[in-house]
Amino acid sequence: MTRRRVTLADVARAAGVSRTTASLVLSDRGTELRISEASQQRVRQVASELGYRPNILSADLRRGSSRTIGFISDTIATSQLAGDMIKGALDHAHREGYLLFIGETEGDLAEEERLVQTMLDRQVDAVVIASMFTRERPIPEGVRGRSVVLLNALPDEAGAVTAIIPDEYDAGRRAAELLLAAGHTRIHLVGAGPDRDQVAPQTVAGRERLAGILDALADAGIAPASGRMCKVWLPEDGWRATADLVASGARGEAIITFNDRLAFGAYQALQEAGMRVPDDFSLVSFDDHQLAGWLHPGLTTFAIPHYELGRRAIQYLLDGEDDAVAAVERIEMPLRSRGSVAPVGGVAASGAVTPSERPRPSRAARPVGARASRGTAEK
């Protein structure tokens, strides 16, 4: 049988004092209000013997806060790729004295509405709505008008709520600049392109990565050597696209794959053709999949900053920024420089090739209205 919680009234009764006196003593105000030292010692001893613990939730609610935040995701909690997003949120919430209530919907909108209502019934101070993949999504009806932020997702209604996402546009620019700095002028795209509208629908990451790549190439006065759009970004899609590229006769050039799974397929296609990365093709990608460092040579890729995304979402809510104008905030994607890029006519050098110092585009040049992130990737 569950043991009944010891209340303040129980302590007062056992110590032979009023409930008010017990409350003042246990809130460290006894001396201030001239309660005798003997009474204070008796109250504290009884509280310790009975195992009394103050009802923090009730006290916080009286102050207008439950010190809890709801975190609702689609499949993040069960994903090895995005688990750090929750870890970042948990770490920052704990550091600030908050608890996180975590729920997962598996993409079921009805379950999402149920979880939203359940968390609001528990008086959470704010809600994070998170997505495994960057996408556009509706705002749950239950959180409208409340303290809420979208994490790794964009609202399908412009300006509805603030969204925190990876800076895919900047990563696309930097990927192209990395290859340009290595002397490559013939750069092939696997996953999207070569035109701006040649990207799978509902793919926010693909759309923004492609825009960044094309803008950087345009600044250099060149166009993509080719582009192969893939509706699904799996290794077999990367394998087929790269095998087609090899069959076209391309050699000694560069490839940008739109995620690491496509890159895995590209590595396989090149190996089957008797070629090597980066001797025959330099290759840059995105995501920093767990296996990216296990390839030979390791894959140079721009990491999704999962930990920083989660941390920043909590910071945003606790700073009270939800009262500001809704915006899109982008978090920088750090470069994981390994051995898949070599200078034209040279040898691979992990970390030795860096993008040229071109001016960063203004906010107005970005594909979606954005504000600069104040955070940098911690992991």
Structure description:
The chain is an alpha/beta fold and 379 residues long. It contains eleven helices and 13 strands. It has helices at 8-15, 19-26, 37-50, 56-62, 83-95, 109-121, 168-181, 204-219, 235-247, 260-272, 306-318; strands at residues 68-73, 99-104, 126-137, 148-155, 163-166, 187-191, 226-229, 253-257, 281-287, 300-303, 328-331, 335-336, 371-372. A seven-stranded parallel beta sheet has the order 2-1-3-4-5-11-13, with helices on both faces. The protein has a six-stranded mixed beta sheet with strand order 7-6-8-9-10-12, with helices on both faces.
Briefly summarize what is shown.
The protein is of the alpha/beta class. The chain is 35% helix and 18% strand. Helix 1 (8-15) crosses helix 3, helix 5 (83-95) packs parallel to helix 11 (306-318) and helix 7 packs parallel to helix 8 (204-219).
Helix coverage percent of residues?
25-40%
The protein's oligomeric status is single chain
Give the H and E element order: HHHHEHEHEEEHEHEHEHEEHEEE
The CA-CA distance between the termini, in Å, is 45 Å
| Mean residue pLDDT | 85
% residues in beta strands: 15-25%
Compute the CA-based radius of gyration.
27 Å
Helix/strand/pairing category: alpha/beta
Contiguous helical run count: 11
The general outline is elongated
